[in-house]
Specification:
Rossmann fold, 10 helices, 13 strands
Length: 299
């Protein structure tokens, strides 16, 4: 019997590398699609994972790369644009259109799509959320050709994340922490819970045509996240919540800082609480059972 092959776009990132590793551990044959093979170099040592070089923005090349693929997983997303370069539109909408077209051409029917909680939110001005919603709509328009499932996580945490680790770096060096949107609420979800739901969904026909929200068991304000992070790394920090005008100024200023730790679009996204609706059962893993293991203490 021919073994199926599962392709991951965005497979060398935080979520993708974990997904690829767990699929391979389940004896699945995994193809990580990447524009540059060196980005997936760490995955080459894992059994049953094949990095495959392809320009995903080239529809013909992408369809050819999917010729032997049975399941397509699109994890691509960006949190910030750089210099007004339309990265959100290109990564979330245009690329999704090309991936969907390549799936149709190559005959790949099963499609899993990573989106975001609040994707398509109409009340705010976040381009990130708007383009994530547009990408979802493109997926939904392919009901006849694809068996799709959309995943909508809150902020994802785990070893190697850019959330608790980023705050951990900041609280270690800032004696006073000026915080934009301190009352914004989030429901962080563990990366292994997200990946586990995606793996379970691959063969679950009940998830076809569904958007699945993913959140952890605990709801925090952003202030509580920073205070928790400070305690976990063993420092005492005063967190000062910024008024709206100062939060906007901070966001505008940090857009020029290397690495762009905070942007005006991040600020707009935080205006909408990243928590799951009541009819969405939370995932099991709490922040406190995982974060201290990798954030640790430095006294």
């Amino acid at each position: 019997m021919k073994q199926r092959r599962i392709a991951i776009l965005g497979g060398s990132g935080f979520v993708g590398s974990r997904l690829a590793a767990l699929l391979a551990a389940d004896d699945e044959s995994v193809v990580v699609l990447t524009r540059r093979l060196q980005r997936a170099h760490d995955l080459e040592v894992l059994h049953r994972i094949e990095p495959r070089e392809v320009d995903a923005q080239n529809p013909t090349a992408l369809a050819a790369a999917l010729a032997d693929i049975d399941v397509m997983i699109n994890l691509v997303g960006v949190l910030n644009e750089h210099g007004g370069d339309a990265s959100f539109q290109r990564a979330h909408v245009t690329l999704t259109e090309k991936v969907l077209g390549a799936c149709r051409e190559a005959g790949v029917r099963r499609y899993l799509h990573m989106s975001s909680l609040n994707a398509g939110e109409q009340k705010g001005k976040s381009i990130y959320l708007r383009t994530k919603g547009e990408a979802e709509q493109r997926v939904r328009e392919n009901d006849a050709e694809l068996d799709w499932t959309i995943f909508r996580p809150s902020v994802i945490f785990g070893e190697g994340d850019d959330f608790f680790n980023r705050f951990g770096q900041l609280v270690r060096v800032l004696p006073v922490f000026p915080l934009a949107m301190p009352d914004a609420r989030l429901q962080p979800v563990f990366v292994d819970d997200v990946v586990g739901c995606m793996i379970d969904a691959i063969d679950d026909a009940a998830t076809h045509g569904k958007a699945i929200c993913l959140c952890g068991p605990d709801i925090f304000t952003l202030r509580e996240i920073v205070e928790y992070t400070a305690r976990t790394v063993g420092v005492s920090r005063k967190v000062i919540g910024l008024p709206d005008w100062a939060a906007r100024l901070q966001a505008r200023t940090m857009e020029f800082v290397p690495g762009k730790p905070f942007s005006i679009d991040n600020y707009e996204s935080l205006k909408t609480d990243s928590i799951c609706p009541d009819d969405c059962p939370p995932q099991a893993t709490s922040v406190d059972t995982v974060v201290p293991q990798y954030l640790g203490r430095r006294n």
